Amino acid sequence: MNRDRFLVKSFGDNIEGTKVGLAKTLELLNNYNHAVIVVPTIGKVDGTMLVTALGEELSKNLIKNREVNLANNKKISLCGQQTLKNYKHAGVYLALWGTEYIIAEIEALHKWKAAILVTWQPGDSAAWEAANKVSVIYDDKKG
Is pTM beyond 0.90 here? Predict the structure, then answer.
């Protein structure tokens, strides 16, 4: 199965890396109908960089309803790592501030076509990069 994998090497609370990951997700929605944003803990997402990057209105709607319908039958869902199993039929997954465990759980899903990992710590992507062909689309250390 042909899958695209994108890596944003973003460390800590880097808003630029978060924006790059979200922009790539929205770009990929042109080709797929459903994207899922996976965060480590859903209860702690309000007031984070996600709100800054997506904008107040869209992010509040997404956090409140866990799903936002966009134009042309496109949809974005938001879930925590604990509930990822309930979102296994999307075309695109964005692991926002993801760990090696979150990206491994996404890899284990069957239907996806593209995945984006925005890291929090430098080593979070090492195993994923070693096992797969991954395109680095942003590197915090390189600017």
Answer: yes
